[in-house]
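User: These chains co-purify. Model them together.
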Amino acid sequence: MIVERSPDEMQATALEWRGQGLSVGLVPTMGFLHEGHLSLVRIARARAERVVVSLFVNPTQFGPSEDYQRYPRDEARDLELCHAAGVDVVFAPDAPSMYAVDRSVSLSENRLSKGLCGASRPGHFDGVLTVVAKLFLLCQPTVAVFGEKDAQQLRVIRRMVRDLNFPVAIMGGALVRESDGLAMSSRNKLLSPEERSQAVGLHQALLAIQAAWEAGEVRTDALRAHALKVLERFPLAKLDYLEFVDDISLDRVQEISEPTLVALAVHFPSARLIDNLVLQR
Amino acid sequence: MIVERSPDEMQATALEWRGQGLSVGLVPTMGFLHEGHLSLVRIARARAERVVVSLFVNPTQFGPSEDYQRYPRDEARDLELCHAAGVDVVFAPDAPSMYAVDRSVSLSENRLSKGLCGASRPGHFDGVLTVVAKLFLLCQPTVAVFGEKDAQQLRVIRRMVRDLNFPVAIMGGALVRESDGLAMSSRNKLLSPEERSQAVGLHQALLAIQAAWEAGEVRTDALRAHALKVLERFPLAKLDYLEFVDDISLDRVQEISEPTLVALAVHFPSARLIDNLVLQR
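Assistant: Joint model of the two components:
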């Protein structure tokens, strides 16, 4: 396994592969890998002759008051996990090699990215799209794999691929949970023991919604009330948002008929966590 | 020579070429080709094993009061010229195949694109960058050639390539002039005979600047005065801008020491024309 720090060298390697007709799978990550990431690597490994995992905590997708500095990092462990997973190249650039001091070109999305996490994290998805476009151009993937946990991100990236004609197949990897139901996230590491025990509240709230929906409730106001009642049992969890949106347009829905994304974000004192499920007959 | 209308088919062809290790040259145009365009095709032809010319009057780079509808078009003649120039594929999509009705992702540049033409054409360069990014992803060029006549465009595109890591070498083709000095432009066709005879004023103004600079004048105020005096002789020409900017940063300069781009834009009743020169020892 090669650990590549240089964007130019990464691109040269990727272009050489593509010039030989090889398929390339890319799993973009911010590192501190967990089983969720590794499930994405397995998807890429099964679908491409060469697999690249990028490890890059992208500064431009963090707001000024967010947790860029505190974001968990453990590159040595990440490299071991990638090696064991059969990754060909780990692309781990530093920020100065990715962003010129006088950079002035960026991407933006003006519809799908405006609600949900985009409302509480202005500029976040522009930062995500810009770095993902760069990673696509540097790593030249034929397929790229993203987690369904970041549901809005996955949809915004699919929109970018469509609107800019990136020749990349985008695959979503199913959300992976801890044994108590907490969605795996690098940020779980930031939680205190008490926060960690209450973090299961996100999944519990979603389960309450799912149960009520399966019992026939389609009004999102009523479903939301079920979830809020559950969240009351987890007082360290301060709700950022809980939304029911059309799974394609991400427009809010009042009654569930088409596939609906239920997404929530919760602030704990030490980390902001997200979770989601799709309600679909 | 193949005439390709379908973005998907264009991309499939280009990816097949690249998978065979072939180099690809792209000349993006809005059609109504003239000798300036053909000089760019020759540059591409000399540097790549496959040459694509795109013909696409891109609606998103025109403002609502601009000349999108009136922009000259003659595809049959363009195809003949491309065939004679040894082009492999002419990519001539229609607008609906390039832009989904609900498109929502675009590129923007927030520094080099703000002055000069960007000041009088808000949104123009965002439209240019977005379509050029799409053309790069569809045609997969190893080299792309743009005219120096669109000096600011060339510099904004180079910035995009750098900031987003497009694996494309950008080449500028020298400005080509009519025998009386008028810079070749598809829009020259829009001029009335009287406007056409006065359109030489742009070049005359630049020549006056160059002569004064060669005689030792470095103060841009004084150089500007020389040019304005020349333009007075061409009363149909209404100045949009005449600027002296650093050739790299496009920041305005008061005295010429480093290479300086002198750019001007002039409104005639029937068309807006641009021209430029670089002052450089």
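Chain B has a mean pLDDT of 97.
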